[in-house]
Amino acid sequence: MRRLKYQIDADNIHFHDYPYECSYAYKAKTIRPSNILEMVDYFGMPAICINGNELVFMSAVDRKALLRFCKANAIPINKRIDVWSIILDEFLDTQHTQEWIQTSMAQLNSCGISEAECQALRHEVAERMFAYNFWQLYTNLHQTP
Prior knowledge:
By secondary structure, this protein is of the alpha+beta class. The chain folds into two domains: 75 residues, PH-domain like (Roll); 59 residues, no CATH class. The chain has five helices and seven strands, in the order E-E-H-E-E-E-E-H-E-H-H-H. The strands form two sheets. It has a four-stranded mixed β-sheet, with helices on one face. A three-stranded antiparallel β-sheet has the order 1-2-3. Strand 1 and strand 2 form a beta hairpin. It is globular and about 45 Å long. The relative contact order is 0.10.
């Protein structure tokens, strides 16, 4: 995955060679503070929300610069819960404490997803998730140097 090329200055965010043609960032190249509804700070990468519903993801490396830009330009900063990350976490090679499991379920409940619905969603995607994870493992083990 290639790193997005952009520059955050005091007044604008300038995108260089943005790869997604359907995005406003591809067409406009420069995003002004007036175009940004909010900064969404969640999971691995922060994002800016533009045009009502488009998220333009930024690098986690630039989180502090983006936070400064948003604060300087009075852009709201909101934390969000990554619902799918919580639901799909079961398929990762990790172990969690009972406290983490309870906290995660409480977060899902706050988003309107019950434990039964979470389990049903996990059941629905389980076969594909295992296939994806094992395919990734297989291809990584069999890559030629």
